[in-house]
Amino acid sequence: MESKYNYFKRDISWLSFNYRVLLEALDERLPLYERINFISIYSSNLEEFYKIRVADHKAVASGATESDEETVQSARELVEEINHEVNRQLDDRVRIYEEKILPALRKNHIIFYQDRHVEPFHQQFIKDFFREEIFPYLQPVPVSKDKIVSFLRDNRLYLAIRLYLKDEKNATNRKPSYFVMKQPYAKVPRFIELPSHDNHFYIMFTEDIIKANLNLIFPGYDVDSSYCIKISRDADILIDDTASSADLVAQLKKKVKKRKIGDVCRFVYDRAMPEDFLDFLIDAFRIHRDELVPGDKHLNLEDLRHLPNPNKSLHRIEKPQPMKLTILDEKESIFNYVAKKDLLLYYPYHSFEHFTHFLYEAVHNPETREIMVTQYRVAENSAVINTLIAAAQNGKKVTVFVELKARFDEENNLATAEMMQAAGIKIIYSIPGLKVHAKVALVRRRGLNGEKIPSYAYISTGNFNEKTATLYADCGLFTCRKEIVNDLYNLFRTLQGKEDPKFTTLLVARFNLIPELNRLIDREISLADQGKGGRIILKMNALQDPTMINRLYEASEHGVQIDLIVRGICCLIPGQSYSRNIRVTRIVDSFLEHARIWYFGNEGRPKVYMGSPDWMRRNLYRRIEAVTPILDPDLRTSLIEMLNIQLADNQKACLVDENLQNVFKKKTPGTPNVRAQYDFYKWLFGNEE
Q1: Among candidates 392, 160, 364, 188, which has minimal Cα distance to 276?
Q2: For site-directed labelling of 262, which of 113, 314, 560, 619 has its Cα 20 to 30 A away?
Q3: Is residue 631 packed enough to be buried (19+ CB in 10 Å), middle (13-18) or exposed (0-12)?
Q4: Of the residues 504, 529, 556, which one is the last residue of a structural domain?
Q5: What pTM did the predictor assign?
C-alpha cells in the first residue's frame, strides 16, 4: 500500500545543506577570510558529492550496476535534477565571489587578479616568474579526435589550449591545433603574491600567469584561446564486503590504488568556452554529454583555503579555544574522578588531550588488564595510536577493531592497523557485510590481589581523531557504571564473533536500538493523547530512514511537539498536515555540528541519549552503532541546555521549510543575540567545576 507520507530526495536535501554552507560567504559579520573559507568548503563538499553519490547514480543510469532503490530511468532523472540544482548554485557562487568577495578584498587593499591582464608594473615580474618558476614544469600534450594521447587525472586542473600555426600566406584557412597542459601545483603554489604597489597587495592565480605567457610555450603559433578543465572520477570502491578479513584487506590494497582512475562522473569546464571548442574536447576525451558541468573561469575553488593574506591587519576569526578542565589537570587522576561521577566532554570546547590523558593513565596504571578501542577514522601520526602502542609495549593487552571500509581513510586505516599489529596489538578487521561505526573505548581493570575494582567505558559521537576534535562539535562520556561497562564489553565480544549479546543499558544498532526508539516515541504519543504534552528533540547529522520518519510524522499527528536539529540530509518534509508539529533547524557555523543527541520529554522526567548513529538506513540497519543513556542528572541537564541554546540560535540557525529553503530565523525584538556555538562555550566556561 502506498504511503500517505512524502519525503525529500536524499541528494537534493544534501544540496540544500551545502548551499547553506555557501551562504556563510555572504555573512559580512564574519572576517573576510572566513567567508572565503566557506566557498572552499562548499566546493570541496561538492567535489566529493560528485565522486560518490552522483557517480553511483550514473552507474545505475547507464545500466552498469543495479540498485534496489532506483531504476535506470529514475537515476537518469535524478542526475538531471542534481545537475540543474548544482548549476543554479554555481551561478550564485560566481555572483558571491565576484560581487561580494573580490570587492571586499579590494576594499582591504588586496587586488586579486582574475585573468591574465595585469597592471604594467607587474608585467615584467610575471614574465620572469613564469620563466624561472613555472615553465620548467610544463608539459603540453597534443590532443586529437583520432586517438586519446593524454589521461586526465582525477581533480587535477588542466589548461585546454587552441592555437594556429603561423602562416602568413594562408591565414584564413588554417586548421586549429589543440593541447592540454596539467597545472604544476605540486611544484608551484596555486596563488602567487606579486610585488605590492602604492599601498596595495596583489595576488594572481598560477594558471593566469601561464595564460599570459603561452606565446613563450608555443613559438611559431598564434594562441587563439585557453580554458581550464578538470575531470572528477568515481571514487567509490566496490568490494565484496562479505569476504573474510584477509580477503578484504587484499581487495582494499588493490582497489584503493585504482580510485584515481575510476570512471568519469563529471567533466567541468569554463562556461566561457566556445561551443565548438567544447565539442572538440567531448569527442577527443570520449565525454558523455550528461557528464558536462559548466564551471567558473577558475576551477577547484576549494584551494581558496590556501589564499594568502598579505594584509596582516585583516584578522581571522577568533574561535573558542579548547579549555582544559581544572578538575582534570595533570595532577588529578581521571580514573579517580570518574570512579565518583560520570564525566561528559564537549569537543572542541574541551581539550581532546583529556581523552589521550585517559589512555595514558590506563597505560601506566598497574591494575589495567586490557584496553579495547574501535577505530573508524584516526589522525595521521595519532597520539591515540601512539599511546595504544605504548600500552602494548608496556605489557597491557590491547585490542583494536579497525573499520577498513571508512571511505577515503582505507589506506590510512590499513597502514595504521599494520603498524599497531607489528607492535603487538590484537587487530580485529571489518565484520563481513557490516560497518562498525561505534566510537567506543573500554579499559578493563582488576585489582593486584584479584579484587574487583572499577573498569571504565567511553562512548562518543565522534572519532578518536585529534585533528577533527578541533573542528567537529562532538560529545564523549566517561563512566564506570557497571551496566554500561558490561554492555560495552559484550559489544567488543560481539565484534570478535564470540557471542550473541544482550544489552541492558546501551542501545546498539541491529540489536535493541530500533525497538527502544519505537518504545520511546510511543511513550510520547501516549502522553500527547492524554493531554500531557509529548515532546521530542532530536539532534543528528542526517535523517533519511523512511520508517523512522514515518514514526515522527505519526507522533506529530498525535500532537507531539518535535524539534529536529539536523545539519545535513533531512528527508522529512515540514509544513505538511502530518508534520505540522515538527520544526527542522539547521546550524552552520565555525565548527561542524557532529553530535547525535536525543531527548524524550517523558512527562517531565526526560530521557537523554547520545551516541554514534544518524537516522539513516545504513546506520540503523547495516552498521554497528552504540548509544548510551545519560544517567547522571547534572550531565543530562547540560545536554538539555545545549539543545535549548541551539534551538534559541538566531544568528546561525536556519529553519528548513517545505521547499528545502534555508530560512534564517528572525530575531524577535528585545531578545538577545544567540549564537549557539559561542554561547554554549560561554555557558560551559561559566559552569566549569
Answers
A1: 160
A2: 619
A3: middle
A4: 504
A5: 0.91
Alpha carbon of residue 206 to chain centroid: 28
Asked whether residue 143 falls in the same domain as residue 224, the answer is yes
Rounded Cα distance, 407 and 238, in Å: 11
Is pLDDT at 604 greater than 60 in this prediction?
yes
Residue 492 has pLDDT above 70, yes or no: yes
- Kind and range of the H or E element at 524? helix 513-529
User: φ, ψ for residue 361 (rounded to 5)?
Assistant: -65, -35
Tell whether residue 407 is among the known ligand binding residues: yes
Q: Are 388 and 400 in contact (CB under 8 A)?
A: yes
Q: CA 459, CA 373: separation in Å to the nearest integer? A: 10
The region of weakest confidence among 270-274, 288-292, 348-352, 649-653 is 288-292
Q: Round to the nearest angstrom and report the end-to-end CA distance of the chain.
A: 56
Domain contains 53: yes
582-587/561-566 β-pairing: parallel
Going by C-alpha positions, the residue among 639, 654, 646, 640 that lies closest to residue 675 is 646
Q: Are residues 531 and 603 located together in one domain of the fold? A: yes
Instruction: Assign residue 510 a region (left: φ > 0; alpha: ψ between -120 and 50; beta: otherwise).
Output: left
Q: State whether residue 495 is helix, strand or coil.
A: helix
pLDDT of 320 above 90: no
Can you tell me the distance from the alpha carbon of 88 to that of 397, in angstroms, rounded to the nearest whole number? 55
Q: Backbone phi, then psi, for 586, in 5-degree steps?
A: -125, 130
Judge if 408 and 485 occupy the same domain. yes
Task: Enumerate residues 6+ apart whose C-beta is below 8 A from 132.
Answer: none
* Cβ-contact 429, 248 below 8 angstroms: yes
C-alpha cell at 69: 532503490
Rounded Cα–Cα distance for residues 388 and 372 (Å): 9
Q: For residue 228, what is its C-alpha cell?
A: 581550464
Task: List the CATH number of the domain containing 634.
Answer: 3.30.870.10
DSSP secondary structure letter of residue 153: P
**Domain residue limits at 423:** 326-504
The alpha carbon of 231 is separated from its chain's Cα centroid by a whole number of angstroms, namely 21
Q: How many CA atoms lie within 13 A of 444 on its CB side?
A: 16
Q: What are 543-588's pLDDT values in tens digits?
A: 999 999 999 999 999 999 999 999 999 999 999 999 999 999 999 9
Q: Is 567 annotated as a binding residue?
A: yes
> Residue written as cell 560518490?
52
**226 in Cβ contact with 162 (< 8 Å):** yes
For the beta carbon of residue 512, count every other beta carbon within 10 angstroms.
Answer: 19
Active site residue: 200, 315, 437, 558, which one?
437
In a domain, 1, yes or no: no
Please confirm, yes or no, whether 350 is among the known catalytic residues.
no
Q: State the CATH number of the domain containing residue 33.
A: 3.30.1840.10
Q: Could you give the 3-state DSSP secondary structure of residue 538?
A: strand
User: How are beta strands 507-508 and 626-629 bridged, if at all?
Assistant: antiparallel
As for how many domains the chain has, the answer is: 3
Task: Provide the grid cell at 669.
Answer: 525584538
Write the DSSP assignment of 137-149 as a string of letters: G---EEE-SS---
Distance separating alpha carbons of residues 449 and 221, to the nearest angstrom:
87
Render 173-222 in DSSP notation, one character per residue.
GPPEEEEEEE--TTTS-SEEEEEEETTEEEEEEHHHHHHHTHHHHSTTEE
The answer to whether residue 313 is domain-embedded is no
Name 89's Cβ contacts closer than 8 Å, sequence gap at least 6: 15, 18, 19, 22
Q: Is 594 marked as a binding-site residue?
A: yes
Quick one: residue 16, left, alpha or beta (phi over 0 = left, psi -120 to 50 = alpha)? alpha
